[in-house]
Amino acid sequence: VGGEPDDSEKTVREHLRGVIAAEIERGTPALWLVLIGHGTFDGRETKFNVRGPDFTDGELAEWLKPFKGTLVVVNTASSSAPFVEALAGENRIIVTATKSAHEIFYPRFGEHFARAIGGLEAADLDQDGQVSLLEAFLYAGHEVKVFFEKEGRIATEHALLDDNGDQRGVRVEEF
């Protein structure tokens, strides 16, 4: 959703909302939503940026509220941490590139996460021939840490994963 403009009058925001509603209506047992792009925080509100009107963490939570199946949301954007609190719950796994809305700089987490979840052998920690969500999270977090260390920079992103619904998330270093 949102890669190329379609012929309809719908904005990306409206299109995404419609896709989510359709999946809920179909009774989809599991839904993955991967947000790739840029996020912003203005001191009050966190948004995921799309062509046309952006959407907030609260709006996405409202759209997904009726979903009863297993939900995985991976937000690889800057300022993504508030999505953990907004979306966490039973049967939900929320991954964000940042630990705070104030982590506003370009995050590298998504690049590493995408390679890992795609089946990167180095990310398959238990060597079972597949890369789990947790393994991809751990691999990507480790690679981000290595990047900042090699560059001699202070880390400006710290990924979170919430899979127990406590709305807090845990950082890679806690595993």
What's the overall average pLDDT, rounded? 95
Q: Which outline best applies?
A: globular
Major beta sheet summary: 5 strands, mixed
How far the N terminus sits from the C terminus, by CA atoms, comes to: 33 Å
Q: How helical, in percent, are the residues? A: 25-40%
Radius of gyration: 16 Å
> Would you tell me the structural class of the helices and strands?
alpha/beta
- Low-pLDDT stretches: none
The secondary-structure element order is HEEEEHEHEHHEE
| Share in β-strands | 15-25%
Chain-wise SSE layout:
Layout lengths: L11 H15 L3 E6 L2 E4 L4 E4 L5 E2 H8 L5 E6 L6 H6 L4 E5 L12 H9 L15 H19 L8 E3 L7 E2 L4
Explain this structure to me?
With 175 residues, the protein is of the alpha/beta class. Helix content is 33%, strand content 18%. It is built from five helices and eight strands. It has helices at residues 12-26, 57-64, 82-87, 109-117, 133-151; strands spanning 30-35, 38-41, 46-49, 55-56, 70-75, 92-96, 160-162, 170-171. The strands form two sheets. Strands 1-5-6-7-8 form a five-stranded mixed β-sheet. A three-stranded antiparallel β-sheet has the order 2-3-4. The longest helix has 19 residues, at 133-151. It is globular. The model has no long low-confidence stretch (mean pLDDT 95).
